[in-house]
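note to self: dont lose this again. the chain is below, predicted strucutre after it. 326 aa total, dont forget to put it in the shared folder this time
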Amino acid sequence: MRPLMLQGHERSITQIKYNREGDLLFSCSKDQKPNVWYSLNGERLGTYDGHQGAVWCLDVDWESRKLITGAGDMTAKIWDVEYGTVIASIPTKSSVRTSNFSFSGNQAAYSTDKAMGQSCELFLIDVRNVDSSLSEQEPTLRIPMTESKITSMLWGPLDETIITGHDNGNIAIWDIRKGQKVVDSGTDHSAGINDMQLSKDGTMFVTASKDTTAKLFDSESLMCLKTYKTERPVNSAAISPIMDHVVLGGGQDAMEVTTTSTKAGKFDSRFFHLIYEEEFARLKGHFGPINSLAFHPDGKSYASGGEDGFVRVQTFDSTYFENIFE
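---
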């Protein structure tokens, strides 16, 4: 199958996400304009204009009505998915690094960077009946991060907890009723965590780290279940919703890209078996490191966004589903 090449960004992709049905694919990049695409044919549906800086993160809610983005212009914005208008813009003290709707879509969380004398903080907001007055309201909860800044974040089961991945490789679970840390993973990863993605049923999640590994964790106890080793930093990892497969994407730092050739196989998507931890496939394509990966909710295709500004949507051949792992 030839991949769909989605060309809509001028600068490197920072995150991509499917909505729940998988008919829409959202992408954001350092060029200030998040895009939304039809995932079936790669047609661009529209852009969300309004940010003044690089957009670091985005998430779409359960009903595909609201989109939340966080950017380097020190705002988190909530958009109307259908009309592309800003519903609310929330000012922050430093750039917004992660943002996620809860599973129910009633709440959203976002975290800010440790920069310009500001410490990293995790914020919770209520987005049930959101309008422009949200920018003046206090967040329902704010947790300052004293040790290391948050680099990725997930909502735990039943919207009771938030799982955070940190710059020093730590993972923590926070109880949002108490506003306290309830579980700490310790030092499973030795370097910063670039990305975390839940499995379909939410019982486990995969992390992608700068220490060249991706790991599978239990999402309640933070016990490390599996480790997938590579030779270079992993920028993103995703779990297939239908197969026991994990896809990893990475490459070197963007600084070192020009000194090596693409032939060295640095920018491949690498498929590992979830349980046996063995790599069984690689897919080439990007001209730079892969920054974000996402499986389609039906598990029959996946998308990758790279430092080259392209989003590639790759549909799997029938042989992929017939492949029985020995």
